[in-house]
Amino acid sequence: MAKMRIKKGDTVQLITGRSQKNGGDRNKTGKVISVNTETQRVLVEGLNRVKRHTKEGQSSRGSQTGGIITQEAAIHISNLMLVDPETKKATRVGTRVETVERDGKTKTVRVRYAKRSGKDL
């Protein structure tokens, strides 16, 4: 199984699919809402929106709910790229190991960084 280089809260760009001219979401950016590591799928805010028809029923407060709801659907992680915080363009993600001193102790920490600019994520 491949490593998950995208985490919750990251800004990502959709790199595949239909172009915006044809009603698609390609090259749009959004914030990651949730990540499912088992299926390697990600929910991104504002991308891959689908209409869902829900049956009208009564909620616990007594209000009637139902109709057509628009919500985000999951996207496979291979169709997304992280957005570089400095250049605002899609970039690959790298990891490096750094030694950090805290309270007189040295620890090794893995740090994610954008390969385009070298900035930490």
From TrEMBL:
Residues in the signal sequence: none
Iron in keyword set: no
The Large ribosomal subunit protein uL24 C-terminal domain, residue ranges: 47-120
Keyword rRNA-binding recorded: yes
Region of interest called Disordered, as start-end residue ranges on this chain: 1-31
UniProt entry keywords in alphabetical sequence: Ribonucleoprotein, Ribosomal protein, RNA-binding, rRNA-binding
InterPro entries given in the database record: Rib_uL2_dom2, Ribosomal_uL24, Ribosomal_uL24_C, Ribosomal_uL24_KOW, Translation_prot_SH3-like_sf
Physiological role: One of the proteins that surrounds the polypeptide exit tunnel on the outside of the subunit. One of two assembly initiator proteins, it binds directly to the 5'-end of the 23S rRNA, where it nucleates assembly of the 50S subunit.
UniProt similarity note: Belongs to the universal ribosomal protein uL24 family.
Oligomer and partners: Part of the 50S ribosomal subunit.
Protein name as it appears in the record: Large ribosomal subunit protein uL24
Organism for this UniProt entry: Kineosporia mesophila
